[in-house]
Amino acid sequence: MIRLLALLALLLPLPALAQSNADVDAAARSVVRVVVTDDANEGDLGMGSGVAVSPTRIVTNAHVVERAVESGGFVGVVPSEGRKRYEGKVVAYAPDLDLAVIAITSGRIEPATLYGGPVADGAAVAALGYPYGVDRAMASGLDELIRPQAPVKSLGHVGGRRTNARYDTVLHDANIGRGNSGGPLVDACGRVIGINSFLSVSEGIDSPFAFALSVKELAAFLAKAKVAPTVVTSPCLSEGEIGARAGALSQAEAAQQAQEARRAAVEAERATAAKQGIRDDIASERDNGMALAAGLLVLGALCAVGGMILLGDRRRKSKGAAWATLALGGALMLGAIVAFLARPKMSEVEDRYAKLHPSEPAPVLGGSAALQAVEGDKLCVIDMDRSIVKLSKTDDVPLDWRDDGCVNGKTQYGANAGTWSRTFVPNGEATVTIQSYDPAKARYSVERFLMGADAMDKARAIRARYKNNACTPDPAQRQSVADMESAIRAVLPTQPNEKLVYSCRTIAAEK
To answer: If 420 and its partner were Cys, which of 91, 348, 387, 413 is the partner (CB 3.0–4.6 Å)?
Structure first.
């Protein structure tokens, strides 16, 4: 019954391995072959595997380097890619834990990330290393064994945690053999969850299980060795889980935008009705002003005519009444002019509406995020619902954004359909990073592509064709940044290994 259940479990789709193993393949960059000799038997090579936990520090099993430690022999490190090999020195050694640290004296190796969270039973895993059986089957000579080449990848599942008086282990069924010792056991996101150390004893009845020293043991050992690896605790999501979450977020965002659009439409309709009422009031006031001006003009004209008649009456000796009548007529006609000019203008509709509704902003599609589409200092906080976190920490990110694509006063981003981005292709590490900012949504994102040596060389060659522009007001240079973005993206995988998405808010300036 147990075998039947195990068979059925193997036939079911495995969420973590549905990612085409891109992350596991990327983890292979950190795996090395460890070659050991001793003074007494220089021609007799001992071999095992290891994994870089910093650019210059390699973790392996203590029993892999035991010969070199006891006799002062040679330790060599052969990376999984490139053309160089490195000499190493054992700088930390704990045979009771079966762990050791090798320091390489030159060069660097892309370090792996450790996963410090809980490991679920049945989780998909991969063992990476250099088993002797493969070397023997390929009839590899010495030159072939010390030539950089990709490690062997063996897939399996976690069978549980096992702890004894000596150490804590992860039990798994990924096939490993002699030579895998010291190599990493990684989850489907390519994070190290253990260091393969030994196999269970098989008597031909059951398939052997393997034991990997857990990250709990590894992290404590590295802390004593003064090595600080990158450790994350974010769960590893499957491609299906990521797709389902992205679909739900898209639907929620679309629903929110539709709701905001409806709200904006209602507010706009209400504003239109209110403005029409104001417009009608102004038209009435203009008509009343015209009527008043006409009335005053008629009365003024009559007074003026009357005053002229009185002035021309020679029978009247006193002309005071005549002049008073003329003055009244003039005042009435002046009042008519003032009343005509004082009529409200139709252009006053917006001003009157603003005075009547001082606390209501104009309807804006895009909601609160649109209000953040302004330049200035921002604080960006990780949005875990939109992020695919596998390898990195998620601390808040300060961002000084300018409308011309200048970030933090020094880095020029290139524009692309409303989003600004910049691609970084470093010389010292094998990771291409794209940083982007969407002003309309106040959303900052970081995409990381874990690349092999050849792919990095292509990306660096493209980057070398463009100037590494700092912030510039020159449109031509800003376009050059955008062109560089497009050219580098063309040689990158379609999906990043990791994507961090941050929601940003404007930080009020201190007064």
So the answer is: 413
DSSP type of residue 388: B
DSSP assignment of 16-59 equals: GGGGTTHHHHHHGGGEEEEEE--SS-TTS-EEEEEEEEETTEEE
Q: Which amino acid type is present at position 41?
A: N
pLDDT in tens, 255-311: 877 887 888 888 888 888 888 888 888 888 888 888 888 888 888 788 888 777 777
How far is the C-alpha of 321 from the C-alpha of 25, rounded, in Å?
A: 110
* Domain locations in the chain as residue ranges: 12-236, 242-356, 367-506
Residue spans of alpha helices (H) in 165-238: 215-224
CB-based contacts of 427: which residues, under 8 Å, 6+ apart? Answer: 460
Compute the distance between CA of residue 55 and CA of residue 104 in angstroms, rounded to an integer: 9
pLDDT of residue 365: 41
d(CA 23, CA 188): 7
Residue with tokens 């015209």: 290
- How many Cβ atoms sit within 10 Å of the Cβ of residue 202? 10
C-alpha distance from residue 364 to each of 264, 268, 368 (Å): 7, 10, 9
Q: Is the pTM of this model over 0.85?
A: no
Q: What does each C-alpha distance from 136 to 142, 145, 184 come to in angstroms?
A: 11, 10, 22
Strands 75-79 and 406-407 turn out to be unpaired
Burial class (CB in 10 A: 0-12, 13-18, 19+), 209: middle
> 12-236, what's its fold?
Thrombin, subunit H (2.40.10)
